[in-house]
Amino acid sequence: MSPAEVEPHVFVILGATGNLTRRKLLPALYHLSSRGELRKKGVILGVARRNLNDQSFRKLARSMLESAGLSVDDAIYSPWCDSCLHYRSIGQGSPEDYKELATRLETLERQHSLPGNRVFDMALPPEAFPDAIVGLGEAGLNKSPGWTRVVVEKPFGQDLASAKELNQLVHKYFDESQVYRIDHFLGKETVQNLLVFRFANALFEPLWNRDHIESVEITVAESGGIEGRSDYYERTGASRDMVQNHLMQLLTLVAMEIPTSFEGDSIRNEKVKVLRQIAPIRRENVVFGQYARGKIGGKEVAGYREESGVLSDSETETFIAAKLEIANWRWKGVPFYLRTGKRMPERLTRIVIRFHCAPVSIFQPFESTCALEPNVLTVAIQPDEGFDLQFQVKSVGQPISLTTQRLHFRYSEAFGPLPDAYENLLVDVVTGDQGQFVRYDEVEGAWALCDPLLKEEITVYPYRGGTWGPPEAAKLFDGSENTWLDRRD
Amino acid sequence: MSPAEVEPHVFVILGATGNLTRRKLLPALYHLSSRGELRKKGVILGVARRNLNDQSFRKLARSMLESAGLSVDDAIYSPWCDSCLHYRSIGQGSPEDYKELATRLETLERQHSLPGNRVFDMALPPEAFPDAIVGLGEAGLNKSPGWTRVVVEKPFGQDLASAKELNQLVHKYFDESQVYRIDHFLGKETVQNLLVFRFANALFEPLWNRDHIESVEITVAESGGIEGRSDYYERTGASRDMVQNHLMQLLTLVAMEIPTSFEGDSIRNEKVKVLRQIAPIRRENVVFGQYARGKIGGKEVAGYREESGVLSDSETETFIAAKLEIANWRWKGVPFYLRTGKRMPERLTRIVIRFHCAPVSIFQPFESTCALEPNVLTVAIQPDEGFDLQFQVKSVGQPISLTTQRLHFRYSEAFGPLPDAYENLLVDVVTGDQGQFVRYDEVEGAWALCDPLLKEEITVYPYRGGTWGPPEAAKLFDGSENTWLDRRD
Q: Which residue among A191, A265, A284, B149 sits deepest, i.e. has the most Cβ atoms within 10 Å of its Cβ?
């Protein structure tokens, strides 16, 4: 990105002393600035309850960066922090406090000769979000002489009803074109590349349908547990934490039709169409699981019910597997297998496209089933981003015999280390590109699909930590020749 | 291959003291034996004019192996040569000489308790070949108590008429099922794998036609010159030396329909069909070239007319480029560009499949021409055997921009060093698999296509050694957006 495309702005972080700011926002802003992509264009205004001034916030910011594992370079940090970093307490968040925030913003903009472009990044816990929206809106901070954009973090609502309510509240003050709902998966290079892969390569589109694809499998596996966040997780579970957002996003990107252009609403229109064409998820096509004690990488790990803060009879799901069907001309009859869980053998996000087998093997023409392995395209999203295409080759020597090999591409081999997803997304925010953000109707469409999972009583099967979920998840493949692809490559 | 599938036999080399035996046959037989693939199954009988006995032939064979660059291991060589290697002079090749050869064969078979299976490998110059066929046939060596097979080296004829004559002569004594015409390209793993790639992978067949493929380009480039063989080359030229055999073989493998099975005649039936569907080559679609002085790898190289034994006004072509069209439902309208030459920048055999561009780029939907690079599949045959699939990916960072990358597979990375093509082919001969050998009607079909090139006066353009041929070759792409793909990767 050329820095010229970024217009001068103030980047306001609401929740500037919080965890998300420390882990994601500040590191991303620091990296972008130190690479020259935001510097001299953006001023940052931290906002939180704590009573800090610019100086003490700059100190805190530095310790936050360091605690996030960055090695802070003084030659870069000092000028950045002196020219960029500011702070304003929001106190108890009264209307008066927001008015004073507005005054501070105007002062800052005057001091830096800024035209009034503003980002409000809501790095807040979900329960603080509605009040902040109202606070901003009532103080007139929903508009400015330049543009005003609101960045909203997940989770967006707890179910369909609450998401709709939240959207109504946001829309009371902000136009949808101002709203940037983050799903950080969408900031990942490989996820963004999925659309390039599909629509810049004429090779794949003719194959990308029910005639040639046997099934699609999407796995988002974490090896970690709940990492002390029992409070959050007990209220959330895997459905809300992963399925409604990340898995549904990956699914829509795989399944969507060709958008009219590579522009925010064209892409999001197509994603919404997919969500509306997914058949209601049937109970028998869902398997819930909860991790029990186990071993990962040789280390004993506790079961979910043993985690501190979790009830000993908790029925919260830490694993979901589901089989979905998309009822449209492209996909009818192609199962989409989705799976996510904690305490799985490795951290792994991957989309697996299984093509149909050859109808007959000319190598054994009269076998009752084709003995050939199918072609499988794997889109590896983390940790090792790239593409693999599994295909059959002749083994060396005579007589002829076949073996499976892979055409291979890895991002890191071509480009070196990739930027964090947040960096991509923040650049999109300040340049006004909504394509990789979730529109209100996407959020609601995804909740509409997941709502039944939240409301119904579904058996939660235990699985050993360090396994790919409960054995019951395999039954989703009943009637198919396949099962979950468990090895990483 | 399991050694059990090889039946005990005598492998007769006619021309046992010659160049081909030294460079190819003996090394291949030695390697196969030392790997246990032929040992104890095959006895070798060298036949030539020279007056040698078993002992002196064994000594000669050893020095031939060493001069071919093999490191001969005594522990393997001595028992192999003592039990395997025999010699019989054919004298002046009179009927009497062939009768005595027959007697010697029977004796050998008695001594080694062999059932009478015989290979006659005609490692002879083309002018000696007809007499040898007659000699064998008249001595009754065209049949035996077991099987009898004749291996024929290229060139097979000098044009359509001579090839037909030769086929008639061969068929007077041998059934086509006994005849193994070698095109050593067909023994290469990658060439054999081309059929596996096409017919064991359901992914490619739906794309393998005029709807999805824009053009096919086949290059067989040599960096060497004529290496002192002016006598041979002046009579031959690139048309006879490369186009009629190797290039036509590669073309038929790319273009053929799905055979009914992976069996010799099923494959060859389909190849013949392709040859018959190639439209007669029009003169304006052919460019001839002849190398002039130049530089390869920093070294000055002489021009063709400066080579010893070449006339200073020789019009022999050392380069041919041609555009062919296959008039069938699969390929009509898809140009097949063929190119071969000596003294090109590198040794390189490669098939390039260019797919159509995406019809529109959603990244720039209103551009008049699609700005996207096409997908290109490269089948690398030598020196670095494997597959590459060129595709578009997103460059790292924002805003979106595209870059070309490659999905990559290399045989040597998966399997280590590959056996020489001759080893594969000799195994096929002794196991009776004709699939990788050229049938009489293939030979004639290929000559029928090339005959006009031999008879017409075609301008021969000079090209500098170390270049990809005369600039005039580019005109074959007139009216297309492409030109020859000159870089290796």
A: A191
